[in-house]
Model the fold of this input.
Amino acid sequence: MKSKIIGVSIATMMMLSASEHNSSTATVGASGAGDSIFALEGNGGIDVEHYALSIRWDDKSGIIDANASLDIKSTQRLSRFNLDFHDLNISALSIDGKACSYSRDGDELIITLPSVIESGSSFGLEVLYSGKPTAVKDAITSGWGSAKAGVEAVSEPISSKNWFPCNNHPKDKATYSINITVPKAYDVVSNGTPSEPTLDGDKKTFRFQTREPMASYLAMVAIGHYDIEKLQTKGGIPIYNYFYKGMKEELKKPFVNEAKIIDFFAERFGKYPFASAGMVATDGESILAYETQTRSLFGTPTNERMVAHEIAHQWFGDFVSLSDWRESWLKEGFATYSSALWFEHTQGKKAMDAWVKGNFESLMGIQMLPKVGLGKLLKVFETKEKMIKAKDIETLINLGTNNKTNPTEMKAALALVPAEGISNFHLDEVFSKVKFEYFRLTFGQYVTFMNIVDTMMSNDRPFEEVVSALAGAPKSVKSMDQMYSSGVYVRGALAMHALRIKVGDEKFFAILKAYFKRFGNSHAGSKEFTQLAKEVSGEDLDSFFKAWLEDKLIPDIPEYGLFKKNYSK
Done:
């Protein structure tokens, strides 16, 4: 990858004067990369090769002042191109040091080149901008936004554009240098390898460099107060862990095996693909985690299964990115299965057997839902708040205890429910009065449960319809909500185990290693993976992949005695 372009590049000399060529021969880069889910994300005509981001953050106002310098290569004869950029104010924009015209249409930044550039030419773009980042509409994450101790910028799938102008699609990966200047009392975390921060008066600048290409949604920043832990894998990969100040030792336990997990996955998938590894543990309410490249970000508390999942993403999703967002099973299903591989490694075959059965049953309508943190989980995944009356709270509690509720405990719980009801987002205190560990719900019980806490299901939906909703085919994804469904995560993961059963361990892991060798630092889709699996295994897998990735209902797993018909009542 090239370093930042300084001064006039060779590309400038290659530019053709518009007066010398009929303007009708000039071309315009497409306003989208052709994604099935996000039609206007990413852009045509360009390949961004490097982002140099310098950002100053004001802790009082939340305003950022920033400079984004992009090294770009044209992929077609180009007179105009787009970038994705949300809301922030631009004060200057130049190509190879020359001011040029631009306009904005929603989140599309439309840039007109000073003169036509030929395909394959390189040029530098510099954008000076400022403002307080605002959340991207209809996105999962907010991008750059305020956090309990400062700032968190996590952007999957489309929110990176709220803090820097970018070609916002996984197909266009680039290297990054990220410099963040903050009041000296703060610490900063970002992707890649950190340098020692520098102090200038009451300001401190933190610098991070990625040596390998990264998709824009994987770029992250966390500003707050952190303790840094430096480790190293057996393979020699430096690990930089950031724990928020005051974090209890108990909350750090899920990360104890981080280096071992990296080494294990390197053995299974091929060497760890980046120059550094690590994580960030934040002091916030989120129970989620994010796959941000080289520096996975976790809400607290978390668990080792989630840690393994996010580490696996460094291969599945980061090293090999998606060619289209509808292909999310290739990262989420694979990462979910990878965490099961880790526990099989540490706990033996019984752990994998239990995982397969438990996840198959979850897709058959049997649901294991937490008692502690249920309200928080609903708040994350459901969009509507609902007030639940005492009568329905009583039903929920009896579902949790399998109708064996202690009358005294029930009375204490219902005493906490006001006459107007209690929010489905604030159920923890009520449930704390009753002794049961979690909800284990059959198909019918789950429908009853969801009808109480939301309006997700109706009681007259047939079993097959519910199962097809819970375990939608990975290749049937057509919306952002479906990208994060159990069909993508769980059915996608079970598909990987079923492939392993079908071809055997030796061929299965050979397929995964070949996948990374062929598509590493690039992107792939289902077509590429399935073709490679057939090639490496030497087997006809067409009907297998159709059943697991396309059929309406998830296949049975007869090797485990798991058949859909046994769960229909």
Notes: The first helix runs from residue 10 to 14. Residues 1-24 have pLDDT under 50 and may be disordered. Residues 225-314 form a domain with the Zincin-like fold (CATH 3.30.2010.30).
